[in-house]
User: Which sequence fits this backbone?
């Protein structure tokens, strides 16, 4: 909205034309979302405490977590609000990718909100039944996939790009819809599984979002895309504003979510953020790079799959507890050590992902 205003004002003073630059609006997206999170965060926490919307803790998990019972949750609503406001203020609202990403984020956030509401407020330990949870996630994921497929304007928008190879692109055809569905839903649930320690999921989300913003900016510029041998996706550069908003909102939330957490994001935040990362990666054609940069999310998910599969097949557990971060806790690692080491791993993986821009 502010982009339209500055475009109108530029006819009176050329200085307002600076707001047409993606880099500036990306930075403003970060700062706007950060300020919204920092200003509204304390008010939200007080409101959640007043309403006694607190996290329940499993008694079969690490004993150190029992002290977290009652900590306000559903704070992810603040993240989504900050992302939405910042993106709508600084984004180009005529860009279809902006609406696809924001719509997907909202749908998955709504699914998470219903799940959190039933568990925390209605005191239903099951929350939203798994079949309905995955049904509505599937609706959101398939909806985004179908829209992207049928609005694609160039073959590059539906090809699978293989990192490290400059000329390898696989035409997926209608399979693009299935692939996109799994990327979005899978990433959404992977972030949700990782969100088990204070700040563990949010900072990797910030770092991955920032890196995807770089991919979006470069892939949306025909000259940069040609030079780096990455697919040129017209209009995708606008996603740098949303990626910046995710980063700013995430950093603002981390201010309150860092150990010991004053608030948890809940499913409303984790499912929405994961879906946002997934759909952005699909748009900029960097799904495989997302799996590299989000390696912490991947290994957390794989640890759950291996644990469940092993127990059902052999009756034995591979890890002391899944997801993986709980395994290290039960081995005696203090929670902050687990968190920071997972952050460090994410920094390395994000750098590796960014390196694929030149190693082709």
Assistant:
């Amino acid at each position: 909205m502010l982009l339209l205003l500055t475009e109108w004002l530029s006819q009176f003073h050329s200085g307002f034309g600076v707001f047409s630059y993606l880099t500036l609006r990306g930075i403003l997206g970060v700062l706007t979302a950060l300020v919204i999170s920092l200003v509204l965060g304390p008010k939200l926490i007080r409101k959640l405490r007043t309403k006694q919307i607190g996290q329940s803790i499993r008694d079969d998990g690490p004993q150190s977590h029992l002290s977290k019972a009652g900590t306000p949750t559903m704070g992810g609503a603040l993240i989504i609000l900050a992302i939405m406001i910042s993106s709508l203020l600084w984004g180009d609202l005529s860009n279809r990718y902006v609406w696809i990403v924001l719509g997907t984020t909202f749908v998955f956030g709504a699914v998470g909100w219903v799940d959190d509401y039933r568990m925390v407020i209605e005191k239903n330990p099951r929350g939203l039944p798994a079949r309905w949870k995955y049904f509505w996630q599937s609706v959101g994921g398939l909806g985004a996939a179908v829209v992207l497929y049928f609005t694609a304007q160039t073959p590059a928008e539906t090809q699978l790009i293989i990192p490290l190879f400059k000329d390898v692109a696989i035409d997926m055809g209608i399979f693009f819809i299935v692939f996109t569905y799994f990327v979005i839903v899978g990433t959404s649930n992977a972030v949700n599984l990782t969100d088990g320690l204070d700040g563990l999921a949010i900072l990797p989300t910030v770092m991955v979002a920032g890196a995807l913003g770089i991919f979006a900016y470069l892939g949306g510029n025909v000259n940069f895309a040609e030079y780096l041998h990455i697919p040129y996706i017209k209009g995708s550069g606008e996603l740098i504003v949303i990626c910046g908003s995710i980063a700013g909102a995430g950093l603002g939330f981390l201010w309150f979510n860092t150990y010991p957490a004053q608030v948890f994001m809940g499913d409303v935040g984790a499912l929405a953020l994961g879906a946002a990362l997934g759909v952005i990666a699909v748009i900029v054609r960097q799904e495989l790079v997302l799996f590299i940069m989000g390696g912490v999310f991947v290994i957390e998910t794989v640890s759950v799959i291996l644990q469940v599969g092993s127990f059902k097949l052999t009756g034995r557990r591979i890890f002391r507890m899944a997801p993986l971060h709980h395994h290290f806790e039960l081995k005696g690692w203090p929670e902050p050590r687990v968190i920071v080491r997972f952050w460090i791993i994410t920094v390395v993986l994000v750098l590796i992902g960014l390196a694929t821009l030149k190693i082709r």
The chain is about 65% helix and 0% strand. Residues 161 and 285 are 6 Å apart (CA to CA).
